[in-house]
Amino acid sequence: MEKKVLLDPGSHSIDDVLVHFEAYKRTRRQEQREFEQQLKNLSLNANCEELNADMEVLRAGLHKLHKQQERLQQLWELNAIDPAPLEAEVCEPQKEDPDEKPDQLEVANGESQCVYHNCQRRIDNQLLLLHYLCDHNQADSYCLSVLEGERAVLSFQPQSCVSRVNKVLGLLAYGGQLEQQLGVTQGRRKFYNAFLPDQHTHLETHIPVVVLICQTAALSVLESKKFELPDSQRDTIFVIWLVTPSDCHRLNATLSLCGRDAAARTGTVIGVRQVNDCQDTACFVTVDANYWRLTYTEMERLSNQFRDELHLEIGLTEPKN
After folding, report:
1. Of the candidates 155, 109, 114, which has an alpha carbon nearest to the alpha carbon of residue 135?
2. pTM for this predicted structure
3. SS3 string of the chain?
4. Euclidean distance between CA atoms 76 and 70, whole angstroms
5. Cα separation, 169 vs 142, whole angstroms
6. Confidence grade of residue 90 (pLDDT, cut at 50, 70, 90)
7. pLDDT of residue 71
């Protein structure tokens, strides 16, 4: 950056000195902001690497503890004989303790690459929600908690989509059925989000779900066609899909899209994709059915010639076994 030198008041007019001094202050403020941002990025990278290392140590300890528990259980089954219950005790149902905690903590394995555009970080799956909340806390990256049977609504401007660029519409945290949250059922959540800030600790056992959209060429849906730049915007399509780092729960998403006129809407049901899967629309739309394809004409109609904001309504469910 060009170094600015203050003018000598004795040889320049006061107006020239003031103009030059204001430019000097702006330059110094810009340099200070860039320096503080560099320090912040260095701190975030170091903290993320430290957390990833801590998670590996924690996972190894939990695996060792799990093996010890299995060994103790085997010894107990070999050396102990449980007496048969009395007839009266057989008829009496056992009371479930809602405060009872599972004796084992199940931890999701592996790491994933961040789905945000131009973010190349690979994050431990248990730290993904922390990464989304703290490192991508822009206005369009808020988190909505949703249970089965509830609906979340994300609003966006369709004209803000850039061709071949994945845009994050929002972040959801799926908490399962209401009965599971109240402790009525014994269902164990198999996902855990580590090191969340105090205001988000209620999402520790929620499943993160990221909602994305991308505008791409209509020919990309044909397996025999490689991606080509469209002749006009009308030759493009909009692809909406959801991803999650959880490999223990299969989720379905019920989607509904409308504009200012709520009566004019369209909808579909898709499966939630894995975050480790390919997120390049030109690749996965030819082999995967878990996305929603909307034509340029549909988006134009729903958004009133792209003048109105669109509202995406989302409901998450777990398939019934």
Report:
1. 114
2. 0.63
3. CCCCCCCCCCCCCHHHHHHHHHHHHHHHHHHHHHHHHHHHHHHHHHHHHHHHHHHHHHHHHHHHHHHHHHHHHHHHHHHCCCCCCCHHHHHCCCCCCCCCCCCCCCCCCCEEECCCCCCCCEEEHHHHHHHHHHHCCCCCCCEEEECCCCCEEEEECHHHCCECCCEEEEEEEECCCHHHHHCCCCCCCCCCCCCCCHHHHHHCCCEEEEEEEEEEEHHHHCCCCCCCCCCCHHHEEEEEEEEECCCCCCCEEEEEEECCCCCCEEEEEEECEECCCCCCHHHHCCCCCCCEEEEHHHHHHHCCCCCCCEEEEEEEECCCC
4. 10
5. 9
6. very low
7. 65
What are the Cα distances from residue 266, in Å, to 272, 293, 317? Answer: 19, 11, 19
Measured between alpha carbons, how far is 37 from 43 in angstroms, rounded to an integer? Answer: 10
- Name residue 105's amino acid: L
Residue the block writes with tokens 């505008």 = 215
All structural domains of the chain with their residue ranges: 12-79, 111-317
**Greatest CA separation for the chain:** 108
Q: Are 282 and 214 in contact (CB under 8 A)?
A: no
- Tens digit of pLDDT for each residue in 3-14? 555 666 667 777
Chain segment 224-249, per-residue pLDDT in tens: 455 555 557 788 999 999 998 887 77
What average pLDDT does range 154-172 have in this prediction? Answer: 91
Identify the top-confidence range among 43-47, 115-119, 254-258, 262-266.
254-258
Q: What are the tens digits of pLDDT across the range 34-72?
A: 888 877 776 677 777 777 788 788 877 777 777 766 766
At the top level of CATH, which class does the domain 111-317 belong to? mainly beta
Structure tokens at 107: 């931890």
